[in-house]
Amino acid sequence: MSFSKYALLFAPVALVATVPTTAQSSSMQMARVVQHMKAVGTMSANFTQTDRNGGMLTGKLLLKRPGHVRFEYQKDVPMLIVADGRALTMVDYEVKQVQRWPIRNSPLAALLDPGQDLARFGKILPTSTDDVVSVEVRDAKRPEFGTITMIFVNKPGAPGGLTLNGWVALDSKNNRTSIRLSNIDYNGPIAKNAFTWKDPRPVRRKS
Q1: 152 near 36, Cβ under 8 Å?
Q2: Strand 162-170 to strand 56-64: parallel, antiparallel, or no bridges (unpaired)?
Q3: Starting from the edge strand earliest in sequence, which strands make up the sheet with 68-73, in order?
Q4: Domain presence at residue 43
Q5: What is the residue-averaged pLDDT of the chain?
Q6: Could you tell me which of 49, 94, 88 has the C-alpha nearest to residue 69?
Q7: Model's pTM, two decimal places?
Q8: Rounded distance, CA 111 to CA 25, Å?
Q9: Quick count: other Cβ atoms within 10 Å of Cβ 151?
Q10: Could you read off the pLDDT of 81-101 as tens digits, one per residue?
């Protein structure tokens, strides 16, 4: 197992400001998304990951703002992805490999930091129904970093009247991977140690 199968979802994406060219309705939609993001302190959910070939994996997502997330895959997938408030870490327990980078260089920054101004760094995409709000985050100057599109659905009683349905990641080679969320619970208690991880790399002893 290698990181390449999962990196599309979490590979670095630099955020760049976009020039507001959308209509008033798009501005209102963006304001709702920002309101929702700021109202969500924690979130837990089940997730289903689908790659371009139709391969599916499942797991459990825990999120705590600012800066904390945990993607724990199904039992037969020895992969863990954790953000501890400072860095995003991908751990492959099968090959004992660890990769880390700053959260701000990941597309997940748009989800993990409620202070992110999505009105500047993202744009609303048209959808076929008013019940769905789609927000695209990408760096037009660095297409090799790909695109992430977050999808929100109207839900009465949810924070800001919206719930995060999932997101779609597209790399520079048009490889598409999607995350679909279910059984979402907002603003419940999540233990601090949920965002720790065990280092699988051998300990190097000093001679």
Answers
A1: yes
A2: unpaired
A3: 97-102, 87-92, 79-84, 68-73, 56-64, 42-50, 176-186, 162-170, 147-154, 132-138, 122-125
A4: yes
A5: 83
A6: 88
A7: 0.82
A8: 22
A9: 19
A10: 999 988 989 999 999 999 998
Joined tokens for residue 89 = 């870490």
145 phi and psi, to 5 degrees? -80, -15
Report whether 96 contacts 201 (CB < 8 A). Answer: yes
What total of structural domains would you count in the chain?
Answer: 1
| CB 124, CB 29: distance < 8 Å | yes
The pLDDT score that the predictor gives to residue 150 is 93
> Cβ distance 70 to 81 under 8 Å?
yes
Q: Which long-range contacts (CB under 8 A, 24 or more apart) does 78-84 make?
A: 78/1, 79/1, 79/6, 80/197, 81/6, 81/10, 82/195, 82/196, 82/197, 83/108, 83/112, 83/195, 84/195, 84/196
Give a yes or no: residue 195 inside a domain.
Answer: no
- For 54-65, the pLDDT digits (tens) are 889 999 999 999
Q: How confident is the model at residue 3 (pLDDT cuts 50, 70, 90)?
A: very low
Decide if 52 is inside a domain: yes
- Within a domain: 164: yes
Cα 37 vs. chain centroid, distance in angstroms?
13
Residue 119: which CATH number? 2.50.20.10
Closest alpha carbon to 117 in 135, 140, 141: 135
Domain that holds residue 12: 4-188
Tokens read off for 159: 């924070």
Per-residue pLDDT band at 116 (split at 50, 70, 90): low
